[in-house]
Write a structure and sequence with these properties.
about 260 residues, Helicase, Ruva Protein, domain 3, Rossmann fold, 2 domains, two-stranded antiparallel sheet, 9 strands, binds S-adenosylmethionine
Length: about 260
């Protein structure tokens, strides 16, 4: 097992920034065990079936397919979401949106716009069952993944197919959104190419979805948006009447989230 892991990690060295970790996750998946088991069983031999399966998974990663799509799941805060190429893989920085949601008063209503796998809405409802949590998604495939995640986790979120908030008549105390914010024509790393274009690209400067959303939230007192260009997003929020705008940094120190209050 130790040899197979070492070989796999060296094969993944050019396609992954975390080759050893990826190799361990793929081997644990192959064997149906937790990663800690790999340490305990380091000196045991892998059978031919396991070797063949493992080689297949490593080849997919070598072709830059993200580990989360290969495993079909991704952890996000306290929950594990099923993911496939219909949805963006939830990122750790998006947890900031959940943290803003956690500050809401008891019983508040909140909507996650562009929910993808359901990550923000489901994680928030999981941690704050008192909130009335809604989620919208334009893409039917992504919405199916989100609904299936809600059903499997037993977390009640009102999922709606909608273009942003069009046709949603419910009023909300807060809007949370990680909408597409990559500028068109941007060159993306090969693993991100596996993710859906509808989840990534937000027009010429990446701000089009926010420009379209703001006129729909004129009555909403609190908005939190994950963005690519925090300064430009702050200006848009101020123009839309949000008097207090805060920019939050992610763990890498990037201004990743803007929070507006009326
Ligand atoms: C960057 S992904 C984020 C997914 C999820 N919120 C997350 O953070 O893991 C953006 C999501 O917004 C959806 N989306 C794009 N345009 C939309 C629109 N006009 N209305 C609703 N959802 C939209 C995409 O299909 C995608 O699922």
């Amino acid at each position: 097992m130790a040899d197979a892991l070492r070989d796999a990690a060296s094969r993944l060295a050019t396609s992954s920034e975390t080759p050893r970790l990826d190799a361990e996750l793929l081997l644990a998946e192959t064997l149906g065990v937790g990663r800690e088991r790999l340490v305990l069983d380091a000196h045991s031999e892998l059978g031919p079936d396991a070797l063949r399966t493992f080689a297949g998974l490593v080849a997919r990663r070598e072709a830059c397919e993200p580990v989360a799509y290969i495993l079909g799941r991704k952890e996000f805060r306290r929950i594990t979401l099923s993911v496939d190429p219909r949805v963006l893989i939830p990122r750790p920085e998006t947890e900031l949106l959940v943290e803003v949601g956690l500050t809401l008063p008891s019983g508040a209503s909140v909507v996650d716009v562009g929910t993808g796998s359901g990550s923000v809405a489901l994680a928030l409802k999981d941690e704050r069952p008192d909130l009335d949590v809604w989620a919208t998604e334009v893409d039917p495939g992504a919405l199916a993944v989100a609904r299936a995640n809600g059903d499997r986790l037993g977390i009640e979120v009102e999922f709606v197919q909608a273009d942003l908030l069009s046709g949603v008549s419910q009023s909300f105390d807060a809007v949370l959104a990680n909408l597409p914010y990559v500028a068109e024509q941007s060159q993306l790393p090969p693993d991100i190419d596996y993710e859906p274009d509808v989840a990534l690209f937000g027009g010429p400067d990446g701000l089009d979805p926010i420009r379209r959303l703001l006129p729909m939230v004129t009555e909403v007192p609190l908005i939190a948006l994950e963005v690519g260009l925090a300064e430009a997003a702050e200006s848009l929020l101020r123009e839309a009447g949000f008097r207090s705008v805060e920019r939050l940094r992610d763990l890498a120190g990037l201004e990743r989230t803007v929070v507006g209050r009326r």
